[in-house]
Amino acid sequence: MPHRDQINPGVEENRDAPGYFGTVTTTEKLPQLPFQPGKNVMDVPPGFRQLLADRKITKVRTTAGDVAWIATRYSDVRALFADPRLGRSHPEPEKAAKISASAILGGATDNYETEREDHTRMRRLLTPAFSARRMGLLRPQVSGLIADLLDRMAAGQKPADLHEQLSFPLPVLVICALLGVPAADREKFRSWSVAMGNLVDAPLAQAAMGEFFTYMRDLVEHKRSDLGEDVISDLISAAPEWKLETDEIASLSTGLLFAGHETTMTRIDMGTVLLLSNPTQADALRADPALVPSAVEEILRLGSTGGGSGGLVRYAREDLEISGVTIRAGEAILLSATTANHDETAFDDPDTFNITRKSANQHMSFAHGAHFCIGASLARIELQEVFSVLLNRFPTLRLAVPVEELRLRKDALTGGLMGLPVTW
Q1: How far apart are CA 232 and CA 226, in angstroms?
Q2: How many CA atoms lie within 13 A of 301 on its CB side?
Q3: pTM of the full predicted structure?
Q4: Which one of 102, 147, 281, 405 has the largest count of C-beta atoms within 10 Å of its C-beta?
Q5: For residue 15, what pLDDT band results from cuts at 50, 70 and 90?
Q6: Chain centroid, CA 398 distance in Å
Q7: Where are the membrane-spanning stretches (predicted)?
Q8: pLDDT tens-digit profile of 103-133?
């Protein structure tokens, strides 16, 4: 395994590089994101394994070419997620380190003075809509959608692409129903989401964001005269009290639709790969439905391909010290929850897929602290319903190609698979 400085030899840190803050006393080579993938889609890229083995917070060159810190150790990532001295905004966002070309999470936001107030307000607005109770009421509808999708797959040709037959349509149909968005437009959402999350093509990402936002803005205006039992209608009704403008409702809805299907889609794909690649675990799940919740938590822990950005970005609002390093105000740090979920100090035998783990599976796939994912309950319900029926509905389900032939979406923010051929 190469030393971390050999992951991309020849890349030097430049104190004058765009987005760099702080004092550089030496010239050093930096690991370059995105790292090369492992031998198959389930492997942690060697570059991240080396950073975790080094067990320290260090600097990397981002996909966009700027310099940022990166944390991979479980204790560091957890502490930094909860640290109020970090945020998504920057006082000079145009000078802040860029992480990628993505229109979402690619750099700093511009609400530095109001970020905390904005975040608290957003959580108070959306928490009732995504409460565990309300999500639980969706479970029968989710179950019905899964049954319909699997029936169609069973009636079709073999091999089938599980990604196209189940992993993509299910989360889109669910989040569209929750938000009140026409599911018939899901191919548009797919196109816009893929483009918005592109890590290298900024014009493409920004154009897609603009089209997606315009669509949502038009939908909000249309729904004003046709309110329903959905989140967008709830936001419209709450607008006078919360002083919500149309653009803010459209922006929130765009973000919810993107996040509400992309990450769950990836976990359905990768959860299936993990189970089919570990037949004893699959057999255990078939035999004991009570294992579904713990199986889903293990899929959440190991079922992320991480994307190419390296982690979720935060910016220091003031100087802070952690694990022997000083992060200066304005500097960026990537929090790699995907890598932290493989930390041996937090998980016994961390690289082993084990749906019967006895100890608490406190993974950070939904982040931690004040920014804990508001859609966690929804994601869990979708995954629990999928993996409670998939293997028994298709008792001989197996990959139609060797796992080494599965391909990642390397230029996508959320990663994921390009396809998942299966047969039975």
Answers
A1: 11
A2: 26
A3: 0.91
A4: 102
A5: very low
A6: 26
A7: none
A8: 999 999 999 999 999 999 999 999 988 888 8
